[in-house]
Amino acid sequence: MADQTLGTLHSFLQKNNTQTSSGGTVVSYSHDTGSGPVLCAVHGYPQSSYMWRHLAPLLKDKISLFIPEQPGYGISSLPPSYDKRVVGGLVMEALHRVFGKDRPVIWCGHDRGARLGHRLLVDRDPSHNIQAAILMDIVPTLVQYQVFSNPKASVAYFHWPFLATDLAPTMLEAMGGGYFCNLTLKKIKGGNEEGVKRFQADYAWDHYSHQFNNPECIAGSCGDYKWGATGEPEAQEADQKAGKKVKVPTLVIYSAANLGRMHNVSAVWKDWVEGELKCHGVEDGYGHFLPEECPEVIAKDVLEWIEHVGKAS
């Protein structure tokens, strides 16, 4: 059932096709509780909004949801630029068209979606109205590239420099984007057997692999990684020199068995967040795809953080 979407899986979600100022379309799913903040849940690589399928039902009665298809990943239009300011701006434009501009936003991003949020959080455009953040299984892009001096790290994250090359789209199309996607999912999945079953549930791997057979998805996702190699590290270095930090309350959730083995995640983020920071390393062998592998754990973290920042505001 590769054609099943988040919307057909959960009838409480409304599908939106939002025309943006770029001339393209942002596809999203939303659920409105009627008031209060909006949780903007943005997927990463190599996925789609479908990755939130386990989490959305656990959150829908507590907070409004905006779940976009990240521009460039085969469902929303290709963005005019892969600069994360541009892509993030398109997501926020679509959110404001659906919910209006007055609702406060809590950014909740996984993987590349978290990196998109990190850029917006540092830029602090007041029109975005982002009041708090949840970043899943990342350290800043600059830090991740710096650790590639460790041969084991560069092998584990080989796809980063590969996808950033001009040859990558042609090579993936020749190999088969869906085949490469499936290999990537197998390589990065966690070691908890029950978690892997939940990750694969609802034909999810078929869904993601089907999506990556789309040449636009290949081009767009490679464009994302190319900007992550050629634009974002320099921008982050300049931010750090200028003292530009994340200043909203930020929760970082990460896989202790995955990211936590390579980085002291809490120590890293203390140098990038000036506001309140909480870090939670998820144990029990759960891997990178936390919202799918252990949704109950992640839902508990997310709801507790929403309640906390609501009381603090």
Automatic annotation (TrEMBL):
Belongs to the AB hydrolase superfamily. Epoxide hydrolase family. Keywords: Hydrolase. The lineage of its organism: Eukaryota, Fungi, Dikarya, Ascomycota, Pezizomycotina. One of its GO terms (molecular function) is hydrolase activity. This is Alpha/Beta hydrolase protein. Residues 37-292 form the AB hydrolase-1 domain. It comes from Neohortaea acidophila.
